[in-house]
Amino acid sequence: MTDTPQPLIEVHPDAAALATAVAGELLNRIADAQAAGHVPHIGLTGGSIADAIHREVARLAPASGVDWGAVVLWFGDERFVPADSPDRNVNQARAAFLDEVGAFRVHTAPASSEAGSAEESAASYADTVRAEGGGDFDVLMLGVGPDGHIASLFPGHPGLDATDAIAVAVHDSPKPPPDRVSLTFEALNRAQSVWFLVSGEPKADAVRRALAEVPAGQAAAALRETPARGVTGRAETVWFLDADAATLI
Ligand SMILES: O=C1O[C@H](COP(=O)(O)O)[C@@H](O)[C@H](O)[C@H]1O
């Protein structure tokens, strides 16, 4: 018996339709929270479908009524490279929408030009999360890799085992760049709404594995193989898919 809500699955015809739907829903959630006098905290992700969603947010933002001074934006993971690197998730999001909408309450893990090591960067990011209220995201968006990774928590990697930590350093990432900082399962699981964003046939098997029911005795192994199994929202978990990503469910 569990009180965790079952995941919802929303399938859109293609990546463009998925991006438009998620961007619109995100702007609605932010506007509704602000109308209720709340400053929402939103967790952003890197990756290809996130970039398309961010560009749709920029396009739809003017009509949304969102006050970008009253929303706090975070990244679930960041690449430990120089601050001006195009590989930084924050730089990709700045180019796609943050600069255009004028968002300025944006937090991410310090870059390699700002911290001596990925461990230092993770500790500093964790301090920022604590100082800003503990990382209770209203909406946390997570891209999913074809291997089932979310944020920078990769199958079989030591970061999966982190306890009593908000953020961890990641080395030898199977996807470049190799050095990264990621929020931990503990931190990611504090979100009210978790939205998985998945597009494309190469990710269909990761979606299948993430949503598959497994016997209790196999749950830990399944999570190590497919880290996306390890995050659920307190109020809702939604899988936003395009048709290609949904072919195996
Ligand atoms: O490296 C990363 O990859 C994932 C997914 O990216 P995608 O290009 O396969 O969509 C992303 O969620 C994560 O934030 C990022 O650092």
Topology diagram in text:
Layout: E1 8-12, H1 15-35, E2 41-44, H2 48-60, E3 72-75, E4 77-79, H3 89-101, E5 106-107, H4 118-131, E6 139-143, E7 167-170, E8 180-183, H5 185-188, E9 193-198, H6 204-211, H7 219-225, E10 236-242
Parallel strand pairs: 1-10, 2-3, 2-6, 3-5, 6-9, 9-10
Antiparallel strand pairs: 4-8, 7-8
Helix pairs in contact: 1-2, 2-3
Distance between the termini: 24 Å
In total, how many domains does the architecture comprise?
Answer: 1
Largest sheet: 7 strands, parallel
What do the pLDDT scores average to? 96
CATH class: Alpha Beta
Q: Which fold does the CATH topology refer to?
A: Rossmann fold
* Beta fraction: 15-25%
Task: Give the bound compounds.
Answer: the ligand O=C1O[C@H](COP(=O)(O)O)[C@@H](O)[C@H](O)[C@H]1O
Helix-strand string: EHEHEEHEHEEEHEHHE
Domain Glucosamine/galactosamine-6-phosphate isomerase: 13-239
Catalytic activity: 6-phospho-D-glucono-1,5-lactone + H2O = 6-phospho-D-gluconate + H(+)
Keywords: Hydrolase
EC number: 3.1.1.31
Provide structural commentary.
The chain is built from 7 helices and 10 strands. The chain is globular, with a radius of gyration of 17 Å. α1 (15-35) crosses α2 (48-60) and α2 (48-60) runs parallel beside α3. The chain has one domain (28-242): 3-Layer(aba) Sandwich (Rossmann fold), CATH 3.40.50.1360. The chain is α/β, with parallel strands linked by helices and 249 residues long. The longest helix has 21 residues, at 15-35. Helices cover 32% and strands 18% of the residues. β2 (41-44), α2 (48-60) and β3 (72-75) form a beta-alpha-beta unit. It has helices spanning 15-35, 48-60, 89-101, 118-131, 185-188, 204-211, 219-225, and strands at 8-12, 41-44, 72-75, 77-79, 106-107, 139-143, 167-170, 180-183, 193-198, 236-242. The site of the ligand O=C1O[C@H](COP(=O)(O)O)[C@@H](O)[C@H](O)[C@H]1O has 12 residues, from α2.
